[in-house]
Amino acid sequence: EQARRTRRSAALFNPSEYGDPGGNLSLISELMAALRNGEFSLAYQPKYDFRAEGITGVEALARWTHPRRGVVPPDLFVGMAEETGHIRPLTEWVIRRAIVDQRALAAAGHDILMSVNISGRLLTDETFAEEVLAAITESGARLCFEITETAVMDNSERALAMIGRFKDAGVCVSLDDYGSGLSSLAYLKRIPADELKIDKAFVMGMDKSSRDALLVKSTIDLAHGLGLRITAEGVESPTTLALLRGMGCDMAQGFLIGRPKPLHALIERLNGPAGLSTTAAA
Length: 282
Ligand code: C2E
Ligand code: MG
Ligand code: MG
Ligand code: MG
What we know:
- It is a single chain.
- Helices cover 45% and strands 20% of the residues.
- The chain contains 12 helices and 9 strands.
- An 8-stranded mixed β-barrel has the order 1-2-4-5-6-7-8-9, surrounded by 4 helices.
- 34% of the residues are buried.
- Residues 176-177, 197, 233 line the site of one magnesium ion.
- Ligand C2E is lined by residues 45, 61-62, 73-75, 78, 91, 94, 117, 119, 146, 176-177, 200, 233-236, 253-255, 260.
- Keywords: Membrane, Transmembrane, Transmembrane helix.
């Protein structure tokens, strides 16, 4: 997966295409300049709360609007940012933006929990912790960190200690893409998570495959047994949504509920009628 990602990224950022025959123009300089030049933005995807019957949270997803390429999805730049040591400035930018936008949402009358994706390698980065803990304490922001499990596996003692510090600051911890990759029960046992997000690979198929549905159901029961809230990602059909409700799932996220959208579109959505009847059309 990593190799594929890097290959795609390398193809996208072929330096020769930028009139840089020496090949000096690196993604590193492009990414830093792009951050300064306002080429990055956040798209917010709503999370539907079955019990509250409404949107109570959103996931902030990074978007890079490249001047020539248009919108570049994060799969193409997150991996490279990680490899070149640029995931910290990117993530700090994301968190600062999410905090500002959470305040804008509050001003518009919407109390919304903001989820941000945190690359596992940042969980051992002391500078990151200092910066972000200060930003959270100053703003009183309500954040949730979505962590993918592969990441926390390396350097687990330091990562666990840092997770503890974020939790003390009121940050909720979510295990992203659960069930894919290197999922293990050991990981579930070790991380003091508040939420588990079951990978869309299982959710997207559950209206067609009873095996997928069974895997989702067992994961919901497992999460609840451990006292965790569970979110299903990749909810694309009304059948899937109904199945999840029947299984006692807590939250649903996916194209059926709403696509990732800019802040103003999110506010319009939240200002509209509550509930799901509007959402299928959104
Ligand atoms: P993720 O955290 O698992 O985010 C969910 C991804 O699934 C998003 O893709 C979202 O657009 C997509 N998705 C949501 N609902 C559906 C659905 O119903 N069907 C389908 N087919 N897809 C759906 P996106 O925005 O391309 O992000 C991809 C990944 O990039 C994210 O996966 C996350 O791991 C990473 N990412 C995004 N923003 C950031 C960031 O700021 N920092 C870091 N470290 N990673 C980020
Ligand atoms: Mg996520
Ligand atoms: Mg995910
Ligand atoms: Mg993912």
